[in-house]
């Protein structure tokens, strides 16, 4: 079974530029999560999708961050314009929906963003 | 809101010795608790979970965790540490916000196993 795929693995940009990260969850997983992990901290949930609907985006800085999961499969997280404090690893995770969901998440390798 | 706390930034242990990584929780109702491990430049990997039943939960790589309701703790343990166990460990709880289940993580504990 293929795992959660993320790209790119690494990205370096100047502040005020834009960046996009892509995630393809495990096949059949209805729930998709984007987390931000700043060095030395635990992952912070940015947005959670159930199929193509948003479950929670209360911690997503909506003035600069956006995310979509148009067909209920893969997802894109965009930052525009980037700030220095956006330097972090962006983790995508997925989990089965409904009664198959026993709580654990399956994570991708992450996308490391450096903003200069 | 449900939350977890990891009181130690770093735990040091000698190879072959038992290890404990601490986690306490604050939840209303029955907690769903998890442990994940993160190796350098990798995503998080699920180790084990407690939902209900036996207070001692066994997981991957020889790890186990003990759910203690009176102390609101869910400490991760291993009887004999390996150098390869050196990694970041995250405790997590399934929070409920707006009627939906939201996984919420602690800040992490760095485990260093010395040869």
Index terms:
heterodimer; A: about 120 residues; mainly beta; 4-stranded antiparallel β-sheet; B: about 120 residues; 6-stranded mixed β-sheet; globular
Textual characterization of the structure:
The complex is a heterodimer of chains A (116) and B (115). With 116 residues, chain A is mainly beta. Helix content of chain A is 0%, strand content 47%. In chain A, strands 2, 4, 5, 6, 9, 10 and 11 form a seven-stranded mixed sheet that branches. Chain A has a four-stranded antiparallel sheet with strand order 1-3-8-7, with no helix packed on it. In chain A, a hairpin with a 2-residue loop joins strand 5 (44-50) and strand 6 (53-56). Chain A is globular. The model of chain A has no long low-confidence stretch (mean pLDDT 92). In chain B, the strands form three sheets. In chain B, strands 2, 5, 6, 10, 11 and 12 form a six-stranded mixed sheet that branches. Chain B has a four-stranded antiparallel sheet with strand order 3-9-8-7, with no helix packed on it. The model of chain B has no long low-confidence stretch (mean pLDDT 92). Chain B is globular. Chain B has 115 residues and is mostly beta strands. Chain B has strands spanning 3-5, 10-14, 19-21, 24-26, 33-38, 44-50, 56-58, 64-68, 73-78, 87-97, 100-105, 109-114. Helix content of chain B is 0%, strand content 56%. The interface between A and B is medium-sized, with 27 and 24 residues.
Tell me the span between the first and last alpha carbons of chain B. Answer: 41 Å
Query: Largest interface: which pair?
Result: A-B, 27 and 24 residues
Mean pLDDT of chain B: 92
Order of helices and strands of chain A: EEEEEEEEEEE
Shape of chain A, please? globular
